[in-house]
Amino acid sequence: MYKKLINDPKEFARLVRQEVAKINCRTKDSHIGGGYSAVDVMSVLYTRILNLNRDNLEDPNRNIFILSKGHIATTMFTVLAYAGIIPYEDLEKHLIDGENYAGHTRRYTVPGIEMSAGSLGHGSCVGCGMAYAKRIQGYQGNVYVLMGDGECNEGSVWESAMFAARFQLSNLVFIVDRNHFQAYGSDEEVLNMGDLEEKFKSFGCHAVTIDGHNYEEIEKMLRASVSEHPGKPSVMIADTVKGKGVSFMENRLEWHFKSPNEEQLAQALKELGE
Amino acid sequence: MRTTFIETLTELAQEDEKIMCVIGDTGFSVFEGFEQEFGGRFLNVGIAEQNFVSIGAGLAAMGMKPYIYNVVSFMTLRAAEQIMLDICYQENPVVLVGVGGGLAYATAGPTHHALQDLALMSAMPNMSVVCPGDPVEMKAVMKQSKDFGKPLYIRIGRSVDPVVHSGDIDFKIGKAIQMYDGTDATLFVTGVMLQEAVKVRELLCQKGITAALYSMPSVKPIDKEIIKERAALGKPVFTIEEHSVIGGLGDAVGRVLCEYMADTPVQFHKFGIPDQFAPVTGSRDYLRDLFGISADKMAGAIVQMLGGDETI
Question: Is the ipTM of this structure higher than 0.90?
């Protein structure tokens, strides 16, 4: 059964967060913290911006969403289910032997997955190629790449930023989920990347920082990014909270990997309004 | 072969508007004509191999037919993960063209020696690996590459390589090309060692040994049928390549031989670069001789292995 897309990003995100908690409690394999930080941006994209449905996934003029931080596959699959792109029941196949719904997103195996991901620092580069190919063939639609802030440790991210600016890929938007944590510690402790907005600007991109949990701000920025800045790729630094939405997960490093037990699930669902 | 590449690519690009040429800041004075003729279908990504390979993948994912051209050692080593994950894993039909295969940039030193690329590329699922032996083979490979529809790695040598084939050839990726017949031994060769292999065969003839010679541009898929057929004769089999003896043509042939060893044991030897870096500076000829893959050294070794007088 396919779900009907809910137009309200806030409600969409609430339902996705609840579903992800349930799935991860069952699978005991999770990247829930980085999913919860990114889900509000993803919700705005799927409810207001991308205009994707089961019938236009092959249209070369479609908007393209690349999940470069492929480890939040649980969140991605759940978003696709609530966007009506994959059957809701398919979520039960996640991490099940012999099925297609792995721990990292894989192209071709799941509708709506534009790129296989898992190793960081690939999405922005592939996104450059797709945005360039769209332009040279006269195709409409933009390419949105969601990456982590820890992912910006990767040199390839900066190779792609230079390229995108040099070739004026105004149909390309990098979104950085700036949740301030990576796998082993805070960004500042591991490799302090400083002011990411300024860094992207110095590479020639249009860059802004917004509240990554404010739906209106996200939508406004995503609309402005491609319409108001011709000749430049856009970078949206979404300032977010790792584990956002569940008090005991917020800003706690261990929830990068940890999965909720039954008791924690009940608490999480309660906080998320069930 | 670089000349053949750009000439053929220009012809293909005139026929098919999806064809693109992507470079990583290499090939000065080679691509200007292409750039002038095709504008945005030429792209210089800069000195950034990771982005270079992934951009190729993104272009292919959106319907273009990119030929991405870079120096073998940088492209296949620096960006191995991008080749594996963005091209092979996602089945993006990108044609990778590596210039400077083997010891082409001999005096430049080991940073520029490309002796592991066949091993790396062959180990990647969905990838096909081809080393044309001369401009004639290169042209045949290029013709097939346009609508190949799968990831393809083409390893070429330098700007100009000697022509070995005297006429047109009938070549298909996955098939060997018979150059000479012979009954005493079989030589399988890949890439620009073709010319050297022809010399080896001549030297052996002078010693009364007639060897069959097959050019094997296609290292993966390998022509199993012909290997099996030759092995069944029970005569010695030799492989010749400008690549490490680990993971190249020799191992590809060897794997097939092993499958049939139980039926007919055959003597088998791989000529290639031993598992080491070049210890000294040297020209291509010097290093080939040092590593025992000059025509003289190989012919001498073969004669010795066949029990004759090795003086060549």
Answer: yes
